[in-house]
Amino acid sequence: MSKRPDIRLGQWITVNSIDCVVTNAYEIGSLLGDCEVVCIPEKPANRDVVWKNDSLHFVEISDYDGYAETYPRLRYYGQKLRRGR
Fold first, then answer.
1. What does the alpha-carbon distance between residue 48 and residue 24 come to, in Å, rounded to a whole number?
2. Can you give the residue ranges of every domain in the chain?
3. What count of other Cβ atoms lies within 10 Å of the Cβ of residue 68?
């Protein structure tokens, strides 16, 4: 199994073929996963992501998924997502 890649705030990543912007990078071993992202430009949603089997995957069930627009801390990242790469 390969080492988790470097994950930085504001970085574009692809998770399950979906373009995302990193909003929070968690410590390695965090129970939340490896990072939080915003995805879906039409209605930005925040999701947790985990590194497993040498690729990034959305956490199956997370109490922290939601609509990014409802969180002021995610506003910048949602705007970046809407502008696109």
1. 9
2. 12-83
3. 24
For residue 36, the one-letter residue type is E
Q: For each successive 10 residues of the chain (85 residues), what is the average pLDDT?
A: 90 96 94 94 93 92 71 94 94
How would you label 10-41 residue by residue, b for 16+ Cβ within 10 Å and e otherwise? eeebebeeeebbbbbbbeeeeebbbbbbbbbe
Q: Is the dihedral of CA 21, 42, 54, 62 positive or negative?
A: positive
Separation CA 77–CA 4 (nearest Å): 22
